[in-house]
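Practice problem. Given the sequence and the SMILES for 3-(4-hydroxy-phenyl)pyruvic acid, write out the predicted structure.
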Amino acid sequence: MNEITIGFIGLGLIGGSIAKTIRRIIPEYRLLAYDIDTANLKLAQTEGVIDEIYCEINHEFSRCDFIFLCAPVSDNCENLLLLKPYLKPSCILTDVGSVKSDIHKKIMKTGQEKMFIGGHPMAGSEKIGYQNASAYLIENVYYLLTPSDSVSETKISVMIKLIASLGAIPLILSFSEHDKVTANISHLPHILASSLVNYIKESDNNLGIMKTVAAGGFKDITRIASSSPYMWQQICLSNKAPILTALKGYIKYLTQIKKELEQSSKDNLYDFFNSAREYRNSFSSASTGPIKKSYEVYCDIVDETGQIASLAGILAKNNISIKNIGIIHNREFEEGVLRIEFYNENATSRAIELLRKYHYTVYERS
Ligand SMILES: NC(=O)C1=CN([C@@H]2O[C@H](COP(=O)(O)OP(=O)(O)OC[C@H]3O[C@@H](n4cnc5c(N)ncnc54)[C@H](O)[C@@H]3O)[C@@H](O)[C@H]2O)C=CC1
Ligand SMILES: O=C(O)C(=O)Cc1ccc(O)cc1
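Answer key:
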């Protein structure tokens, strides 16, 4: 088989993670990248992730069998025209942007429908840039695909195969359905997280007491407020109408709960929390959710030198890789515990079994 060549236009958190995943799973593929930030490109080349780096979009990309547009959404739209003269007809052009309607409209304008299949991995984080990219970010998560109307079935099945081979779960949607869904389950939550943080900033006293005592719940639901403001500015502007509809629907809920509280409607307040609890508990705890599951366990550990090293040694001897490790202190674990994160479900369950065998107290959190 001829060598497959894949190009990346933008190599930050998502582009970098897809490139690292390809390098991990299909190391023989040739990877090319362009990014406005040359430091990213140089790092990726030094790490052996990208084979060829370019400081402009040029004829080198005409060798690509796939091109992933991985810049913020409106930059992806602008890069389409710059790429157009170089793409071979058999190339599959895709993107990873969080919004799909604008890029599909631009694709129709530029006459590139026969090669475009929109893409959107439902995984990510509040972190920014290639330095935070991970070869496991898209493992076992939904990867939404929005093929153009005139792209061939062959191209669609090749794309589905590639995404599945990278360990993600391809799911086809129309671009308008995509934007409605993501407005509700991704864009609205990001707006809520940021508005909650802004509200607390405004309400706190000058010693920052709220900020100091904010507990797990606040931190859980506002983590995504640390995301890139530039990326979210672009997402909001690009998906304005569906986000406004979602906000309107959500504000209705807030108004309703405000009324029920004002009226001390005991039963309605109970129903409000109970219906949310039941529906939230019905979400799959398997990794295929809108939010990627993190494989973490918590473990009591004696506060003595060498304790972390001996636990890590047990895992290493059994070929279990640790993704992240560190002591945490919060109210749930009053004494402080060791938080250990693994790469996948299998490693997590093997580690739990092993550590318990060595008489460690291990906690799992759903
Ligand atoms: N961050 C997340 O959790 C997720 C982001 N996305 C989408 O992925 C895309 C990329 O986001 P991230 O990787 O998170 O952002 P990022 O900020 O980590 O990376 C963006 C990269 O694009 C480069 N870039 C900016 N303008 C460019 C241009 N005109 N041409 C070429 N490169 C350019 C930047 O230098 C940077 O390396 C966005 O469209 C976003 O909507 C999709 C799923 C999750
Ligand atoms: O960090 C998280 O939990 C996210 O929600 C990340 C994210 C951001 C943007 C997307 O389009 C998809 C996923």
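Check your answer against the key. The chain is about 45% helix and 15% strand.
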